[in-house]
Amino acid sequence: MSLKQLLLEKSALSQDLYLPHLSIDCVVFGFHDASLKVLVTKFKDQSVWSLPGGYILKTENIKEAANRILFDRTGVENIYLQQFSVFGDLNRSEKFFEDYPDSLWNKQRFVSIGFYALVNYSQVHLIVDEVSDACEWKSIDELPELIMDHRLIFEKALIRLRKELNYKPIGYNLLPEKFTMPELQKLYEIILGKKLNRGNFFRKMLRYAILIKLDESRKGGAHKAPILYKFDIEKYEKALKDGLNEGW
Amino acid sequence: MSLKQLLLEKSALSQDLYLPHLSIDCVVFGFHDASLKVLVTKFKDQSVWSLPGGYILKTENIKEAANRILFDRTGVENIYLQQFSVFGDLNRSEKFFEDYPDSLWNKQRFVSIGFYALVNYSQVHLIVDEVSDACEWKSIDELPELIMDHRLIFEKALIRLRKELNYKPIGYNLLPEKFTMPELQKLYEIILGKKLNRGNFFRKMLRYAILIKLDESRKGGAHKAPILYKFDIEKYEKALKDGLNEGW
Lengths: 248, 248
Fold this sequence. Notes:
Two copies of one chain form a homodimer. By secondary structure, the first copy, chain A, is an alpha+beta fold. The first copy, chain A, has helices spanning about 5-15, 60-75, 150-165, 180-190, 200-210, 235-240, and strands spanning about 20-30, 35-45, 55, 80-85, 110-120, 130-140, 210-215, 225-230. The model of chain A has no long low-confidence stretch (mean pLDDT about 95). At the A-B interface, β1 and β4 of A face β1 and β4 of B.
């Protein structure tokens, strides 16, 4: 069935189930192969990609809706999720449906609530829903063309993530349980889009006091075995809540 | 006319003009008499106070709506405005209207978009609209009881403002043009709700490189005349955009 047929068929049900005018779009970040990736989907019959998104049931809270939408795409529950901005310009989404009848539920003006998520890449099972024909990870520096204002939504999420590095710890949802300091630095460099000084990074990270140095090191490789760290979850959670101990 | 009569009378017009289910609430901060204040209003016939808010015209963007709502309360245009969170729990606002007929436009479920604003206290002209009988500044440590979830909205705005101190300059919209370092420190202390070390504050602020030391000092008073500073607007604007030069 074509996208048009599917949407027309679901239009009346959508009107019954969902709040009008409100949608959710999610920027889902995962870290793999030393590259920051974002989850994108493609509607049937379309050449451009979309961020995963959906609508809000009349019977659910906003955060519940975001969790449900992400669970339906990834099979992961309780994903680390942050609402970061609202996208409410006139005609941000309406143009996409200009060839559809005005009665189509999806054709109304939508104000979209943007969430970003940090997920463990290896735990995600990509799920293609009935109106899509693809769901894939793409590197942030090789993102394909995105529909509507989804490029802007992605960019705003990345900017927010960069700013939050100044007061929030990061990595627990993105790195494996045990990691080296250069691996943690690489994650920061990729999010920030710039190189960092190794000594400064090391000192700043130790001042945050959220790492536990392990007695084991990684075997294999020609070089001296690198020291492994893991996050001190109690201190990490406290820093997420109260801010890093280097701030004001 | 009572609040009930007024709202019932405006209900049909509201339905014509505004997007359903979406509202805006604003936390407007001003700094006066060494105290951080928030603008609150009181609906007619109510004992508890509200944050200033409103709805979104079907013909306007979200940010335009927030600007219009604040202009109507303060007479100030182009206020420094940041969207910070969305409040969308079920029944967050419906209970307030439980004694009203179900046909009342205001009684539907509303998802509210929270904005905070930083304004120059002395430029604000408090405007009481037709459904209110008061509009006043209240100190953040002496806030009266607020309706619905407005206390939560205020608290989230303050938390966001505190976190943003780690990567954004602050003060331009809150302090007079020329100020002393102790006055700037006092602003930080009031927002953060804690004392700061004077020497550390001074060094950190100079590293931000957003201040211009003036050749004049403030006259009067028994003590040594304190040095005056003003913001270097070009560098301040750049830091607002790119982050303070102390971050990652």
